[in-house]
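For the sake of transparency, this paper describes our internal protein records without simplification. The remainder of this section carries one protein's record, kept here as part of the documentation:
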Amino acid sequence: THNLPPGLEYLNQLDQIIIHQQVELLEAILGTETSSKYEIKNALGQRVYFAVEENGCFDRKLCSPLRAFTMRIADNAGREVIRVIRPLRCNSCCFPCFLQQLEVQSPPGTIAGYVVQNWDPFLPKFTIQNESKEDVLKIIGPCATCGCFEDVDFEVKALNEMTTIGKISKYWSGFVNNVFTNTANFGIQVPVDLDVRIKAVMIGACFLIDLMFFENSLDGL
C-alpha cells in the first residue's frame, strides 16, 4: 500500500462504494440551485470521503447538466485526495466529436485516469482509461434511464463488452425524495482487487452519469 496515492489506501479494501447527495435546505424549500455536496460511504454506511462541487452560479443556472465543474473530494481529516474535472462539452449523440470527457486526479495534480463517452445511437457508453489514456474498462447503460420506480444499472464490463465485472446503480429513493429534493443516491460495485486509481475514476464516472441522466429527472416518475 506504500505505492498508493495518499488518501486512497482505504479504497483498497472496498468492493462497494455508496454516494449520497446532501440536500441544502434552501434548495429543498425554494428550488434554488446550490453547489452539490456528497458523502461517499462504505457498504456499512460509514463516511469515507466527502465531495463538494465547485463552479459558478451562471454555470449551474444556464448550463445545468452540461455544466463544467471541479469536484473536490476530501477524506475525513479534510485532506483533498481526489479531484474530478469536467469541461463544458456536448451532451448529444448528434455531435460525436465533442462528447463528454472527465479527468480524475489523485493526488490533485497527478492524473489517475479518464472517463470518455463513446458515441452510440441507442445506449449510454463510456470508457474508463488509466493515466496513460489506455482503455481499461467499459460502462454500458440501459436504453432508458427513467427507472420506473426501480434502480437503474450501468454495467461495468471488460473491454470486450462481454464480461460484466460490476455496476454503477442509481438507487430509486421514493416519491418524496425524488420530487421534492431530487437527491442522488448511487452505488458502485467493482472487484475488490481493482486498482485504487481506477476505483477513484469510477467515482468520477458516477458523478458524470448523475449529471448527464438524472440531474433534472424525476427518476422514473
Notes: The chain has four helices and twelve strands. Residues 113 and 133 are 7 Å apart (CA to CA).
